[in-house]
Design brief:
The structure is a single chain. The protein folds into two domains: 201 residues, inorganic pyrophosphatase (n-terminal core); 105 residues, Diaminopimelate Epimerase, Chain A, domain 1. Helices cover 43% and strands 18% of the residues. The chain has twelve helices and eleven strands. Helix 1 packs across helix 7, helix 3 runs antiparallel to helix 4 and helix 6 crosses helix 10. It starts with a strand and ends with a helix.
């Protein structure tokens, strides 16, 4: 059988596939990219008998290609936690999609595998900014504070590596990073045996975050904050994780990070308030190229003339 693994290039997509392939090793074609590259099924050409595993990308954004691939005779296993749109019914399509704001794709896989690779799932949950969920699951699973601190660091760094305008902005191509991770049953083994990769990500994260802390605030109220980042590699890399950091500091506020692009438009990352994880997907769906989930979403290209409109909509969405 012809195997194809399609996965988001962030911590959640990476750790979801690591769990599945530790459980059931397969030689497969890897299709991935930057975190914002969510129309990944457009890059898949399948033949009758192909088996496609899809992880951590919106069904809504890929529905046409799901239909195309099913018509070509492929079977698809689709696991995700983003917007569905209209779900297709087909004998060759298996879905496990949970839209709950306190889950992620790796946690869905963890349930399927009954916690067999729990440490990878916890790593992904930390990366997806589900800190409370990750910490509780980790404590219930018997991990000590030092181990959980390591998983949290790794999750944040893996997620950080997924952000950029293209793979050239990243420290590691997500396909290469996956191949480094999948060798190990646990993140702890990876950390022991590949310090170079971990240290590269850690150093880059700390340097980029230090620069982000100096960025100007465009707009601020009691319930929302908008920050602008420049058109620089470091800014594109840090846009999502900086939003997560700000959300954790002020859980009662919504945050938006607007990163300038080379065409003068903006890449937008939105984080709903952590104390009520909802509304981010509703907000960005009002704009072209918007997509995501209830707690965290984004816009791939917001025209600069729509910034004021976006800020107004942002304010209206989160003052409720």
């Amino acid at each position: 059988m012809h195997y194809i693994d399609v996965f988001n290039g962030d911590a959640d997509g990476l750790c979801a596939l690591v769990q599945l392939r530790r459980h059931e090793p397969q030689q497969s074609i890897l299709i991935t990219g930057i975190k914002r590259d969510i129309n990944l099924l457009k890059r898949v050409d399948a033949e009758s008998g192909s088996h496609i595993t899809v992880l951590d990308i919106s069904f809504e954004k890929n529905a046409e290609d799901v239909q195309r691939l099913l018509q070509d005779g492929a079977t698809i296993n689709y696991i995700d936690h983003h917007r569905i749109g209209e779900l297709i019914s087909h004998t060759n399509l298996k879905t496990d999609i949970d839209l709950s704001s306190d889950t992620c794709t790796s946690l869905i896989v963890d349930k399927q595998l009954q916690g067999q690779y729990r440490a990878w799932a916890i790593t992904a949950a930390f990366g997806d900014n589900l800190f409370d969920k990750a910490m509780q699951l980790g404590q219930d699973s018997g991990f000590n504070p030092k181990e959980l601190a390591l998983l949290k660091e790794l999750g944040i760094y893996l997620n950080y590596n997924g952000y950029g305008a293209d793979v050239g902005d990243l420290f590691f191509d997500p396909a290469l990073l996956y191949q480094k991770l999948v060798k190990f049953d646990t993140p702890f083994e990876f950390l022991q045996q590949d310090e170079v990769t971990f240290n590269t990500l850690a150093q880059g994260y700390k340097q980029d975050m230090a620069l982000a802390e100096q960025s100007p605030v465009l707009y601020q109220t009691d319930h929302c904050v908008v920050i602008e980042l420049p058109n620089e590699k470091w800014a594109r890399r840090v846009s999502g994780v900086f939003g997560n950091e700000l959300a954790n500091r002020a859980p009662e506020k919504a945050h938006a990070i607007l990163t300038k692009k080379s065409d003068s438009n903006y890449l937008v990352s939105v984080r709903a308030p952590l104390n009520r994880r909802s509304g981010a997907d509703e907000l960005v769906s009002q704009f072209p190229t918007g997509g995501g989930r209830k707690a965290a979403a984004g816009i791939n290209s917001l025209p600069r003339e729509m910034v004021e409109t976006f800020v107004d909509a942002f304010e209206q969405q989160f003052k409720k």
